[in-house]
Every structure is written in C-alpha cells, then in structure tokens.
Design goal:
mainly alpha; 112 residues; rod-shaped; single chain
C-alpha cells in the first residue's frame, strides 16, 4: 500500500512538473514573440521595403495614380485619388526612390 502511494505521488509530481514546464515554456514563447520575434518581423519588413521589386512597384503605382488624377474630371475624383496616395504612400520614402521631379512634387502635395 505504501509503494502504491509512493508511485502515485511520484506520478502526480512528474505530471505537475511537465504541466508547469509547458506553462513556463509558453510564457517564454510569448515573451520571445513580443521582443525578438517583433524585432525580426520589423527587420524583414524593412528589407522588403528596400527591395527593388517593392520600390519599382510603388513607383509604377504612383505613375498610374498620377495619370488617373490628370484624367479625372471632377475635383471630387482628384481628391479621392489624392486620399488614396496619402494612405498608400504613408510609409514610403518617395525622396529616395522617385526620381521624376513632377511626380515627386505631386506625391508630396497629395501626402502633406
């Protein structure tokens, strides 16, 4: 009887340690995600935003919207396109990537 109680106590202790470890590791993962994981994602985003495909795509997008803006008939349409530009290019460094002065000036007027 004493042996069964001893085995049962060891079993409960091992299960408790495993559950406690799993809980602790879960918190470690959460903290990792909030710190190192967050910094890693930010670094990946920065690298992507500096990539040639992203910057060329944004430049083409700006040219497309500029042509649509020039062809717009009403001031409301022009304002709507400017609103799209101000939101779409909010985090884009147009000074660094857009070389056409007319397009650059238009984007800055729309954004600011």
């Amino acid at each position: 009887m004493k042996e069964i109680g001893k085995v049962l106590a060891i079993f409960i202790l091992v299960v408790g340690i495993l559950l406690g470890s799993a809980y602790g590791l879960g918190w470690i993962k959460v903290n990792y995600t909030e710190t190192v994981g967050k910094a890693q994602k930010n670094a990946e985003r920065t690298v992507y935003q500096e990539s040639n495909s992203f910057t060329k795509g944004k430049t083409q997008e700006a040219i497309k919207y500029y042509k649509e803006w020039q062809e717009a008939d009403s001031p409301e349409e022009k304002q709507a396109i400017e609103n799209i530009i101000s939101m779409s290019f909010a985090d884009f460094n147009e000074d660094k990537h857009i070389t056409d002065p007319k397009l650059l000036s238009w984007i800055k007027n729309a954004k600011y």
